[in-house]
Specification:
Length: 231
């Protein structure tokens, strides 16, 4: 934790309430996977220690009103504005990735809200789960949709290599996917999108897609299928 900052219960409660938005505490708890009682105690300033970065990540991913992971981390006292100036530090890069993953989720949710089929997001089970989103759907023959975020920072000079893609394919191959499951790799860099699209897996038994998201425009630009479960 930044030694120059401490946990300010009042400031954090105000920001968390802003992140909750118009939803009830129970609705926000259901989306984030954090108990309603725990959220309520933070809102009522009853807890003297800040939530863990993992819990903050859950708050941020479903935050309303533009509240970001960085905002909540600063309010919790883990970082300061000045400490974020060095974008190349491992901690700051993790924070930036968390922010961008939050934007990925918001773009995908905004797109889903405009769809005419039924869908429900499964509760998150922790910061390190794979993949990043699991959605129950009823569309185009699919019943479940898995989405893995692969963030590219603006300052990143390294794009995913063949080894990176093969590792990801290996993770997917260990899942017990069904013909009614859809798996999408979501990226925000066109070079990465083309890199993945040009290297489809040869023998992966999955309905696998790659999706290009524009965070600047806040929309999904395109999604293409890489391989089919039955081929």
């Amino acid at each position: 934790m930044d030694t120059e900052k401490v946990f300010n219960k009042e400031s954090f409660a105000l920001l968390l309430d802003k992140a909750k938005g118009d939803r009830s505490i129970n609705q926000y708890a259901n989306e984030t996977g954090v108990s309603a009682a725990h959220i309520s105690r933070f809102l009522r300033e009853m807890i003297d220690s800040p939530p863990t970065p993992e819990t903050i990540s859950k708050f941020a991913k479903y935050a309303a009103n533009g509240v970001s992971y960085r905002d909540l981390m600063i309010a919790a006292g883990y970082i300061s504005e000045d400490s974020m100036k060095n974008e190349d530090s491992p901690r700051n890069r993790r924070i930036l990735v968390e922010e961008m993953e939050q934007k990925f989720l918001q773009v995908i949710l905004a797109d889903l809200y405009n769809k005419d089929f039924k869908w429900t997001i499964q509760k998150p089970e922790g910061r390190m789960r794979f993949p990043d989103m699991i959605i129950d759907i009823d569309h185009d023959g699919y019943k479940k949709w898995y989405i893995e975020f692969r963030v590219s920072l603006n300052s990143s000079r390294i794009h995913p290599s063949i080894m990176f893609i093969h590792h990801l394919y290996g993770q997917i191959s260990m899942m017990e996917l069904l013909p009614t499951d859809k798996f999408t790799i979501a990226v925000n860099d066109e070079k990465v999108y083309k890199h993945i699209f040009k290297r489809p897996p040869v023998s992966l038994r999955a309905n696998l897609y790659v999706m290009l998201i524009s965070l600047e425009k806040g929309k999904i630009l395109q999604e293409e299928k890489l391989c089919d479960y039955y081929k």
